[in-house]
Design brief:
By secondary structure, this protein is mostly helical. Helices cover 80% and strands 1% of the residues.
Length: 409
Amino acid sequence: MRRSYKSKSTAGKESIWSPAFISIFVINIILNLNQFMTTALIPKFAAHLGATATIIGIVTSMFAITALGVRPIVGPSSSYFKKNNLLAASTAIIILAFICYSLASSISMIIAGRLLHGIGMGFLAPVSLALASDALPESRIASGIGVFSLGQAIATAIGPMLGLELVQAYGYSAVFLISAGATCLVLVLSLRLKTEAPAPNQRFTISLDNIIATEVIIPTIIMFFLAGAFSCINSFILIYGGAIGIEEIGLFFTAYAVCLLFTRPVSGRISERYGVSATIIPGMLIFALSFVVISFSRSLPMFIFAGAVSACGYGICQPSIQTLCMKLVPSERRGVAGNTNYIGVDAGYLITPSIAGFIVSMVQDKGGTEVNGYAAMYRFMTIPIVIAFAVFLWNRKHLTASKAAVDQS
């Protein structure tokens, strides 16, 4: 049953811009701005404290341990508690993580912050996705999720560069405190967000059915490989550019985000008209190409081009697969479906950066330069994308039939 706050245009075509969607859209922008401003700095902060490439990969992926650890209670919680209260609680935990980063003087303290951060993100990402989906008309979910994800695009454009500028002016500790203060605004907005109360007879029950939506296992596997590869961009691109001697490497993220502003709304409309295959298949191929371009980049224009290519790849695949997950289940199961999808994302973020850091260190141990190590790692990261592509093609007909069955019901 759809929410009563949906708005419709006079022409009969439903609008995505309901008050509920506007609220969660603004919250998403603020959250992602703070997220990207600090996430891009964590690897550099760890390197500043003396961490090797392998340790940097481990530190970067630490948050995924606790993010995965809370997954068993995210699904039941999204059915038992009001979603805005869950959003507020997860935001409060992320504020504590930022404070922990600001106090860090050792790698162990950063890891403690990453573990706290993982708890908050474990709840925040699927709850936000479910809130956005609930606020959208059924016929506009693909476009709506694409627009919703633009908050991430805007944050990607501004966050890393803003973080780097603030670090140069005020230092790491101050930047993390600024992020904590800004996230407090999200906490207030979350508490003011109007969401439906759960059913009075709803029980808090932890069961496999409340943790994992088996209907979205295949998209989750695909996201594991894609998100894992993408995490290596966030984890190492600033260090890679710095090793080459490019001072404005943060413009990679700006190019990525600017391209997303154009590709995501268009890809959402294409998905609605022609199906998700029309965006996922070319998106994966372009995403794999972006890693090849990154590996050969030695100048700022090449990195800017690589950022744009990456946006046309992962930036299209991610919302398309998330939309597919939302469409493969009934509306009351979307919180669990989002939780399942992010299990794949978290697992990719946990495993892949450590493997990537090991590859960089191995190349250096064999006599290669730091630049050679990162270039080899980025070429290696095309393999997970190829695997994801094969999984999708193998299961394409099954996914189409499952989506059609849900639509009919």
